[in-house]
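hey so u asked for the seq, here:
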Amino acid sequence: MADEKGPVVVVSSADELGKLVGAAKPTAEHEDRRVRSQHELTLGDRVLRYTATAGTTRVQLDEKPAVDLFHVSYVLDDGGPDRPVTFAFNGGPGSSSVWLHLGILGPNRVRVDVDRPAALPGRLEPNPHTLLAHSDLVFIDPASTGHSRPSEGKGREYHG
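ran it, structure tokens below
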């Protein structure tokens, strides 16, 4: 049901999400890879305990070759079934989700000294403004960006 904030879509599995965005199930000959780790972040007097998952999921769209999409998610351990999920991604080719992830929304951010940009890459620190305090997070790298790759070829079928 929609309200002033817009419609809410709830999916309970990767297959349902794939159907929602028009993707088929992962191809049978490929095994998706995932790595999970447990973390905590203190924001004021609140401690967020969460599970981080990084991995790839192979998807096939119509007649195009499959693509292995890289994603990182952060799920609050005690968030419950009604907790919202935010999906964040940039456009490709050439723009991964890294700055949405490590610059704005994620539980950690890269601190960069704007007076000394040559000091990159900066340092990783807790993000006191993370959206994880309000929503679980999924960062997706589009095909040919970040760690996402077409399963074969150079990806022209995806982005020209």
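The chain has one domain: 33-159. The mean pLDDT is 77.
lmk if thats what u needed
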